Structure formats: C-alpha cells, structure tokens
Amino acid sequence: MPEIVTLTVNPAIDIATSVERLTDTHKMRCAPARIDPGGGGINVARVVHRLGGDCLAIYLAGGPVADRLGRLLSAEGLSFVALGIEGETRENFSVTELCSHREFRFVMPGPAVSEAEWQRCLGYIDALQPAPRYLVLSGSLPLGVADDFYARVIEMAKVRGSRVVLDASGPALRAALPHAPYLIKPSLNELRQLTGRALETETDCMQTAQEIVRKGHAQVVALTLGAGGAMLVTQEDIVRSGAVATSFCSTIGAGDSFVGGMVWALNRNAGVQEAFRYGMAAAAAALSHAGTELGSAAEIKQCYGEVSLA
C-alpha cells in the first residue's frame, strides 16, 4: 500500500475550452476542448505522482463517465481504485473568454450517493493495509453524503496512525475540525464562510488561523490567498509567501496542486516550511496551464527556486 492515499468522493471529468467572447442566445464556436481527470483528491494524487511519489487515488464513480475517467488516469500511469456507485460521475466545464482573459467555471453538483455506498467507502478506507502514512481528503461532498463524512474518516484514520490532510469547505469542513485533522488548506473565501468573519486584513487571517491551531482543530493551517500568495500557521511559526511570478492561464487545479506539493514533501520528511514552498511551487506551475493540466516535475522544481518566504 502506498504511503500517500487520496480520497475523492465527488470526482469529475474537467472539460476546458475558449471562445472569443461570451454572448447570450447566440451560438459560440469553441476551440477544441481539453479533457482532464478532475476532483480534489485525484488532482492531488496526479501531482504526487508527477513528482515521483507513490500514491493511490481512491474515488467513488459510476456510469460511462466513470469509465472514461479511469482511462484518463490509466493514461497518466496513476494507481487508483474506483468504488462503484449507481449515479453517474459528473462533468465540469470551463470557458476562457479570449477578449478579456476571464475564466468562467461551471461546476456540476455530481450524482446522489446512497448511504450504503458512502458507508461502503468508509469500510474500504478503514480496511486499508497497512494504513497510509498520509490520507488526503479533498473536494466537495455530493448529495446524499452526510456532512460529517470527513469527520468519520478522520477518526478512523487517526486510530490507525495516519496523518489526515483536509481540503474541504462549508458544513463538511465545519464538522471535521473538532476531530483535529493534521493539516487543513482553506482558501480565504472558505475561511470567511467557516468563521463568518470578513477577514479584511492579513492580521485578521493570521489571528483566525492561529485560533484554529490553538483550539487543537489542526496542527497546520495552510491558507491560500489567491493572487496574494499563501500563509502557513503552526503552533511554532507563521510564514508568509507572495504569489510566484508565472504566466497565467487557468486557476483550475492550483489549490489541489498546492496540497499535492505539500504532501509529497512532507512524506519525504521535509519540514513544514519546505513543504509549504513545494506547495507554492506546484500551485504556480499549475497556473500556467489550460484546464486541469497540472505542472510537470521540472516546472514545479523550477518554481520552487522562486518561492520566497517571510
């Protein structure tokens, strides 16, 4: 069993294209589409794999889209286990408007998942032998999955000695925090939703992240700030990094890449600050690609040298 396992409850196939200008009612002739595997944990696993890490991606999937998703992952050489469900896996769609360089993202809700299906997933994770060193829980929960699903996984994983990395939002994040995942990676908007605070200044963000750590709800908070870079907060340190200068194409997969870079480095026994640098580098490398095409190992390592911590 690989030391890094990712779980994606609501995976997708991501379709990306572009048009000169978005207009209503008229047909818009699109550029050829780029098609990639998608979903939080799947993208994390893709980054770990590109960096040479041994990783297993576990996800729930059903219908013809699931078959295509499996073929895409096989083409990348990624190890995966698809746990079958009755509902059909979703497809997401993004369009770049060339005249403005704005990106429009259309994210589908995904299939309904029955209690029997998500309970079977819990049982599969709990039976992994040996338990993974790092278990990454990333992405949205589809209709039918209990809000405390991630909380239940965290409790099972901690008993077995796994470190849990959580990238979630809304009720799923709120329910999971009292169960103390090792690391969480909220975006600024996700942290605002979680706390109900405006978080208008960097000090506000820092103090809120410190409060999460102080309460024992996570040992590490990696807060991504979009164009503003990111912030790392632990009990011992507060580290800030501005965004890495790179050519910009798409934001899709950047946050997942951040998690993938961090987890890959942590599993190699890197310190948290070094792992944070790799997270920043992987995110920057993803930004320069269309759709959910992620950065290569060479691009990530090049960006790593450009990350500045303060």
TrEMBL record:
<dbReference type="Pfam" id="PF00294">
    <property type="entry name" value="PfkB"/>
</dbReference>
<dbReference type="InterPro" id="IPR017583">
    <property type="entry name" value="Tagatose/fructose_Pkinase"/>
</dbReference>
<dbReference type="InterPro" id="IPR002173">
    <property type="entry name" value="Carboh/pur_kinase_PfkB_CS"/>
</dbReference>
<dbReference type="InterPro" id="IPR011611">
    <property type="entry name" value="PfkB_dom"/>
</dbReference>
<keyword id="KW-0808">Transferase</keyword>
<comment type="similarity">
    <text>Belongs to the carbohydrate kinase PfkB family.</text>
</comment>
<dbReference type="GO" id="GO:0003872">
    <property type="term" value="F:6-phosphofructokinase activity"/>
</dbReference>
<feature type="domain" description="Carbohydrate kinase PfkB">
    <location>
        <begin position="13"/>
        <end position="294"/>
    </location>
</feature>
<keyword id="KW-0067">ATP-binding</keyword>
<keyword id="KW-0418">Kinase</keyword>
<protein>
    <recommendedName>
        <fullName>Phosphofructokinase</fullName>
    </recommendedName>
</protein>
<keyword id="KW-0547">Nucleotide-binding</keyword>
<dbReference type="InterPro" id="IPR029056">
    <property type="entry name" value="Ribokinase-like"/>
</dbReference>
